[in-house]
Amino acid sequence: MTDSIEAARHTLRRVCRDLMRKPNVVATGIGYKYVNSQKTDQLAIICSVTTKQAKKNLSEKELVPAQIDGLPLDVRPVGVIRALQNPTRRFRPAPGGVSIGHELVTAGTLGCWVRKDGKWYILSNNHVLANSNAARIGDAILQPGRYDGGEWPLDRIAALSDFVEIKFAKGESDCKIGRSAAAVVNAFSGKTNRITAVREEQPENVVDCALAEPLSTDDVLPEILNIGKVTGTGSAQLGTVVKKSGRTTGLTTGVIEQIDATVRVSYSATQEALFVDQLLAGAMSQGGDSGSAVLNEQNELVGLLFAGSDTITVINRIEHVFRELAIDGVE
Questions:
Q1: Rounded CA gap, 119 and 22, in Å?
Q2: Cα 171 to the center of its chain, rounded Å
Q3: pTM score of the predicted model
Q4: For the chain, does the N or the C end have fewer beta carbons within 10 angstroms?
């Protein structure tokens, strides 16, 4: 199995860019092929599309091939993949899994508490704590988030400490439907006979993450609501059973269905970002769950949830998050 996955990874790395240029493709990854809605044990490249179209409505260049190097391609409709932010109770001390947000953001989820240079920090998403790059270091972080009644200064729990900038797309090339990819996927419908957009190369991201330092260590509860203590960190693989506790949907579970995924995420009508080496699980989140810590069955931290659609959940690998933010560990 290990050799088969490595061969599939090699193939995906070679063809990923070409597949992602196809106008209706929003994600690619490695998973198992489904036949008649039943999972098989055959590895496949999964091409997630906003909507599945009849072959007669697509040109030859727009079609996803049936196989590459003997590896089948499985096309799955997932809708538009959006960063999960949606507009509950105040917690002191605050555990992971509760409402939080930058003072100008509606609400997301406090993922968990981590350690860096001997200090406690809140770990969540950039778009939750740093307002999608628009915030400044030192800005107020509220718990609960503003949408859930959080007010400044009464509910200020922390100050923004660090974030990894999200590299957004600069724009799209000649496109009859719209200039941005967001316009492409939003304008496309079942009434459209043909997709004619051509996408340009986009800068790549691996994480949507940020840290905030608490005003007081008395506000720190190093566990996750409805889950408990985090036992350490781990690495998720195909088939890993995962769970999360989030502001909107609470405790949910899922399975890692794709690895090495490249995903195009819509943050707004004018902001879109491309993410690589992501983990994809099934529908285990909704808006407001962004920032949730994702754990395996041993309560090891394996990822940071940040986006999804009605059918999938997109997760940063925790290895990338810790490296980018220079986090020492989790307790």
A1: 45
A2: 21
A3: 0.82
A4: N
